[in-house]
Design goal:
alpha+beta
């Protein structure tokens, strides 16, 4: 169980490939940063995560809005990790980049 005082931070590009992860995110997933930076967030998303949630998340971010919800991922040991997630788009030169 992850402490509520820890902020798990990850940044991805528009395709979902990790470009940054902090130590707390690594600890929660069991991966080190070098491993995660070679992965796509879709590789960690639990197979039972409803597609409608993933579609809503993608649609919301592509419109430039933030999204808040619960995500279920698999850690390196293939155990369930539930994350209370706040996701916001990243911008560069006025364009959504991640």
């Amino acid at each position: 169980m992850t402490s509520t005082s820890q902020q798990l931070i990850s940044v991805t590009d528009r395709s979902g490939h990790f470009t940054y992860v902090n130590e707390h995110y690594c600890n929660a997933t069991g991966y080190d940063s070098c491993e995660l930076l070679t992965k796509n967030i879709k590789q960690l998303t639990h197979s039972d995560m409803p597609n409608i949630v993933i579609d809503e998340l993608s649609s919301t971010l592509s419109k430039g809005f933030s999204w808040h919800g619960v995500m279920r991922i698999n850690n390196k040991q293939n155990q369930d990790v539930w994350l209370d997630t706040f996701t916001t788009p990243q911008y560069e030169n006025g364009q959504v980049t991640g």
